[in-house]
Fold Modulator protein.
Amino acid sequence: MQTDQLLAAADILLTEARRLGADAADTVAHFGSAEGITVRLGVIEDIERSETIEIGLRAFVGGASASVSTSDLSRAGLSELAERAVDMAKRAPEDPFAALAPVEALAHAPCPELDLLDPASPSPEELRDRARETEDAARAVSGVSNTEGGSASFTRASTILATSTGFAGAYEGASHSLSASVIAGEGSGMQRDYAARSARHRADLLNPGEIGRLAGERAAGRLAPATPAVGPVPVVFDPRVSSSLIGHLLAAMAAPAIARRASFLVGWEAAELFASDITIVEDPLRPRGLRSRPFDGEGVACSPRKLVERGRIGGWLTNVASAAQLGLPLTGHASRGIGGAPGVAPSNVDLLAGNQTVEELIADVREGVLVDYLIGQGVNLVTGNYSRGAAGRRIVNGRIEGPVAGFTVAGNLIEMFGAMRAANDLETWRAINAPTLRIDGMTVAAA
């Protein structure tokens, strides 16, 4: 019902925009509902339920454009929105690169079946029971002394995009989530950690007991941390945090950043950035994927691709404006909010597993650290300089030992990527996935 309503509203907006003098226009709309329950110490602490419906119009007059959005889907509200957008576009400065996607690049109906919508919606009682079971399992772990709560939530969303060139597409999705955050120890020795999982279908989610137990064991495992040896040592990134390194790569591969020369990858498009056995793939059409979508934020068809092959970047991630500015093809990576110009975002990215087990990967490490918790945002995407607070475990003579905390890991992302080695423990339940990664030569220092 929401999808039909949004498509009808989009048609009204596009018709009105053209009538008022727009040369071209597109509209994006979103309907979302969310329900979540948090339980703390066995008692319901918070209940949330929300519904949002929004629609935005981008109108082009000559080479200028403007975007306006509203939550008023009445005929009068839509007419007013179109009038404001066209009037603003007439006053806006021209942009030689902003435009709609060409017709030949647009996705064709029918869209591929991505199985993003779980037909079963949990009741409030089911969410309460899941949250309570998650927290109970965490509290049952030896060493856990307090809790920040267990949570369960369910969201459902519809997204539509329509253009004055005749494209109209829509897709729906759902997400089930569970999490727990707990504290171990007492007084000044307390340590905190968490566990969380999300999945499109309830059947793909870990059960609450497993998530709670994992949160409790993580917190208890941090008690009585030491400070690791400082200096240049091998740093091993646990899958909990290794995907963040790939996130920095993807941000630097965005064509808008390349066009602004605001990326540390400028000049690296033809060079071997990683070792030749590193491959990074993207699959926006993965069934039940957390970021799956049949078309991007400009209606361009999405398709699987290799982002890094044999250590080399496979090209920048473009939207219409950045592709025009750099003279590149469209790659189906436009991302879109309700208002404003499109950005760039990837979908379902995996750094493929290597051939070694984690034990084999660290077997020759005499002294190093395994990082499973990162703090702060000390990453400069223009220079590639990397420095973040961290916690984890010590590696001694090829074995993972006790907890360590109160240190930073630092390097430069270009050098880090070149030294990166991957274990074989890849899991693909996140939006960005990577196995355990080892990087030699990073600097560990006391925080």
Remarks:
- The chain has a mean pLDDT of 96.
- The two ends are 54 Å apart (CA to CA).
- The chain has nine helices and 19 strands.
